[in-house]
Amino acid sequence: MNDRITVACLDLEGVLIPEIWINLAEKTGIEELKLTTRDIEDYDELMEKRLEVLDENGLTLKDFQEVVATMDPLDGAGEFLQWLRSQVEVIILSDTFREFAKPLIAKLGHPTIFCHSLVVDSQSGVIKDYALRQADQKRKAILALRDLNFQTLSIGDSYNDISMLEEADSGIFFKPTHQITEEYPTIPVTRNYDELRSHLCINHGFRD
After folding, report:
1. What mean pLDDT is reported for the chain?
2. Residue 41 bears catalytic tag
3. Position 191 in a domain
4. Which of 34, 65, 69, 74 is most exposed, with minimal Cβ within 10 Å?
């Protein structure tokens, strides 16, 4: 019997909260901001495109914060996360930025989150660049947890989650696109929190 403690590592956007960039796109009417890691696999390429669009349209950190202030976690996310935290240790592994995520993390009950940071002009509030905590940080977090003798479980929805889904002892898709499930057919798919909870109970011995 495996008696290692399990740590569940979850993506944030698309799994627990709506996509922040998509919400900004809807508020501003700028279609290019709807692109996410579901569309562009290379994160640096995606962020370079985003920063270019922000610069062209004069958008600042304040614009993002105003959008985030109107957002809530996905329906059922808080309850699911509370249940999951009663079963195992939980870490949010996200390629979002602390400056965006902080209010939504508060609404989720302040789970532990590892994410990146923005480089912001202190005078103008213009987002000048981004600072990765570590390249391929999701996969490397899984590897570090394994070195600490933890059992690892990962849940994600996008291309930037693939490395952690494949590296973890168990990886699960949550509401992925049809395209990504075709490209990675061996990763189990769940479409809502009830399915995800049921999958964890049946396949990982969690308590319902």
Report:
1. 93
2. no
3. yes
4. 69
Give pLDDT tens digits for 73-98: 999 999 999 999 999 999 999 999 99
> CA 138, CA 121: separation in Å to the nearest integer?
28
Please check whether residue 70 is in contact with residue 187, taking contact to mean a CB–CB distance below 8 angstroms.
no
The predicted-structure confidence for 104-136, as pLDDT tens digits, reads as follows 999 999 999 999 999 999 999 999 999 998 889
Widest distance between CA atoms in the chain: 58
Residues forming beta bridges with residue 118, ordered by sequence position: 130
Of 11, 19, 95, 157, catalytic? 11
Which residue out of 13, 99, 157, 161 is catalytically annotated?
13
For residue 1, tell me if it sits in a domain.
Answer: no
**Total structural domains within the chain:** 1
pTM to 2 decimals? 0.90
Q: Please check whether residue 117 lies inside any domain of the structure.
A: yes
CATH number at residue 111: 3.90.1470.10
Give pLDDT, residue 2: 55
* Ranges in the chain, pLDDT < 50: 1
Residue 1 has what pLDDT? 37
